[in-house]
C-alpha cells in the first residue's frame, strides 16, 4: 500500500482524491472550492474512475449529453485517473460488509472511492464528510 504522505527534504506532500461533489462544485465555478483547491499542488490530486463514471452518468441527464461529456473530458484531462484493482475491490467488500453490519451503509460509489483512497494512501476531498467518516481510518481533507 502506498503512503499517504511523502516526505521530501523540507516538506511533507499529501496526495488527494476528489469526490464527485468537489468536481461538480469546481465545474460550476464555486469560488470556495476553487480557492481551496488552489492551495494544493495539481500533481497531488487524483480522480478515481469510479468518480468519472458518476460524473458521466450526470451528463446523460441533460438534453445534450455530448456537450457535457466534452466538458467533463476536458476537466479530467488535467488530472491523473486512478484505476480499480483486486486489492481495492477486496477493501471495498470488507468496508461494505462492515458498514452493513453496523447499520451505517453508504452508496457503493462512496465506498469504492474510500477503498481506493485507503489502498493508495490518499486523502479524500469531499463536502460529504457525514458519509465518508463512516469508513474506518479514511483520511478526509479538513478545511
Secondary-structure blueprint of this entry?
Layout: E1 5-7, E2 12-14, E3 16-18, H1 20-27, H2 31-37, E4 45-48, H3 49-59, H4 65-76, E5 80-82, H5 86-101, H6 108-120, E6 123-125, H7 129-132
Overview of this protein structure:
With about 140 residues, this protein is of the alpha/beta class. The chain has a single domain (about 15-130), classed as 3-Layer(aba) Sandwich (Rossmann fold). The protein is about 50% helix and about 15% strand. The chain is built from seven helices and six strands; from the N terminus they run βββααβααβααβα. It has a four-stranded parallel beta sheet with strand order 5-4-3-6. Helix 3 (about 50-60) runs antiparallel to helix 4 and helix 5 (about 85-100) crosses helix 6. Residues about 1-10 have low confidence and may be disordered.
Offer a quick outline of the entry.
It contains seven helices and six strands, in the order E-E-E-H-H-E-H-H-E-H-H-E-H. It has 143 residues and is an alpha/beta fold.
**CATH homologous superfamily - what is it?**
5'-nuclease
Distance between the termini: 26 Å
**Content of β-strand:** 5-15%
Order of helices and strands: EEEHHEHHEHHEH
Helix content: 40-55%
CATH topology: Rossmann fold
Going across the biggest sheet, name each strand in turn: 5-4-3-6
Tally of extended strands?
A: 6
- Sheet with most strands: 4 strands, parallel
Indicate the CATH architecture: 3-Layer(aba) Sandwich
- By secondary-structure content and strand pairing, the structural class works out as alpha/beta
Flag low-confidence runs: 1-10
**CATH C-level category:** Alpha Beta
Based on Cα principal axes, name the global outline: globular
Report mean pLDDT, rounded to a whole number. Answer: 91
Number of domains: 1
Provide a count of the helices. Answer: 7
Output the radius of gyration. Answer: 15 Å
Amino acid at each position: 500500500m502506498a503512503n499517504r504522505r511523502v516526505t521530501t527534504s523540507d516538506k511533507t506532500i499529501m496526495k488527494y482524491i476528489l469526490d464527485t461533489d468537489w468536481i461538480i462544485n469546481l465545474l460550476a465555478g464555486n469560488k470556495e472550492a476553487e480557492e481551496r483547491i488552489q492551495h494544493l499542488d495539481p500533481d497531488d490530486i487524483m480522480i478515481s474512475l469510479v468518480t468519472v463514471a458518476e460524473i458521466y452518468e450526470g451528463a446523460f441527464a441533460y438534453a445534450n449529453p455530448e456537450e457535457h461529456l466534452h466538458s467533463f473530458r476536458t476537466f479530467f484531462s488535467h488530472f491523473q485517473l486512478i484505476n480499480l484493482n483486486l486489492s481495492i475491490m477486496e477493501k471495498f467488500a470488507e468496508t461494505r460488509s462492515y458498514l452493513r453490519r453496523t447499520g451505517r451503509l453508504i452508496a457503493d460509489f462512496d465506498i469504492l472511492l474510500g477503498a481506493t483512497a485507503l489502498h493508495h494512501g490518499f486523502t479524500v476531498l469531499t463536502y460529504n464528510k457525514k458519509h465518508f467518516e463512516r469508513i474506518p481510518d479514511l483520511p478526509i481533507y479538513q478545511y
